[in-house]
Structures are given as structure tokens and as C-alpha cells.
Amino acid sequence: MTSLLGKFVTKIDFESYEDFRDNLKIIVPQNFNFAFDVVDAYAEIDPQKLALVWCNDYDEHKKISFGELKRLSDKAATFFLNHGIRKCDTVMLTLKSRWEFWVCMIGLNKIGAISIPSTHMLKKKDFIYRIKKADLKMIVCVADEDVINEVDAAHAELGKIPLLKAMAGSKISTLDGWLDFNSELDATSPDFQRPSGEARTNNESVILAYFTSGTTGYPKMVRHDQIYPLGHIITAKYWQNVMDDGLHYTVADTGWAKCAWVRSMGSG
Asked: What is the pTM for the complete model shown?
């Protein structure tokens, strides 16, 4: 087994709750970046280690190793850069639970852009609110006509606000004003270097932002910094009982924060 967990905690196994309470400490590296320091680190030391298993109701399935996830996320980072997305820019991901969600999340993390996960159940007014509130630069959404129509309706009502739109998992013929994420990903170079200088992230840089449910009033945009994944080591290891080289069945739609809570050091 190959696990990076020991690199980020002072102790892994505990004899009691008191032992856990008193002796668990999270090690926070300087300029931590999940994409490079976890995903790419696994890709270097154990490229065949399983990172993601995806399937749907149509007998489509995909297994992605950490080596492949590094390659795909490097290509995604270049894809976003090629379309003008830069550090601190916001990109909404409305991808249901498709595998492209994780490729986009990690690719955006590599360039320091901010991922905004959202549910496919949003309507025109919801997209309008989020586009304006988050100053969105791009939306990558599932190639579902209902979702695409709502995005297009929101974009049309906003007038000339510049907004890049891409669809993933395409079973729809090319649409005016839309990029085909999968086709472009296939054609994009995997050559990508970790940014340095002003382009690199630091621990205070925002990695993603969720919109709350808006139970009372409008949804609030909640930002999380680069060390957010380190905080969920406790969630994955000591609550969800994720095991190294095991599988965690994530039932949450990618529009909900719970889908990301298993982004830990030892999860497959």
C-alpha cells in the first residue's frame, strides 16, 4: 500500500478518544496545493494506484489511475489557460457526477482558478444570480439539453456579459457558442508545469466556493482556501473510515460539498 497520510498528520492510529484528541495534529505545508502535493505526488510514487471509478446507468464506466488523473488534469489546466482562465478566475462546474468534474476541479486547482460546484437542478434565475455574484468567467456543464437551455437563457438575459461555455460528456451535436470539453481535452497537450512566482497558489488562495442552499434568503457564496482538503482528512479517515486502496461510494451530487469530503490522503 502507498499512502501519503503520514506526511500530513503527526499520528495515524489511536488507542482512545483522548489519545486522538490530544495527539492528532494536521501538518500544513507552506504553499500546499492538493493537485500537486497529493494527486501528482501519488502519480509519481505509484502511478497505477486507483484514483477514481466512475459508472452510470447507461453501462458507461471508467477507471482512472493517479498517473492518468495527473495527465488528464494537466491537459485540463492547459485547456483552461488556452481559453483565458487564470489564477483567481471563477469557473462553475455543473457536471452531475461525471468523471470530468474531478478532472476539471484538479486542473483548475493547478492554475489557481476557483471551482464553483453546482447542481444540474439550477434554473435560469439561479444561474443569473450565480454568474453575477461570483463574477463567473466560464461554465462547464453536462451535455444535457435541459441544463444547457437554462444556462443559455441566463446568459441571454444578462446581455453581453462575457461567459465561456463548455459541455462535457457530449451526445449533442455541436452548439453555437459552446465548446466541446471532451474533444478539446483529447486534443490538448499534457505538458504542464507547476506555476511559480505570482502565478502560484499559497495557503490563503481560494480553491473553491460553494453556494449555500438558500433556505432563508438568497444563497451565500462560501469560499474555502487551499488547505480545505487537509481539514477533511479527519472526515475521510476517522468518520467515513476510508481505507487506503479501498473504494468510497460517493452518492452526493457534485453540486453538494459532501462530494468533495473524501478528497483525502489515503482514498481511492
From this structure: 0.92
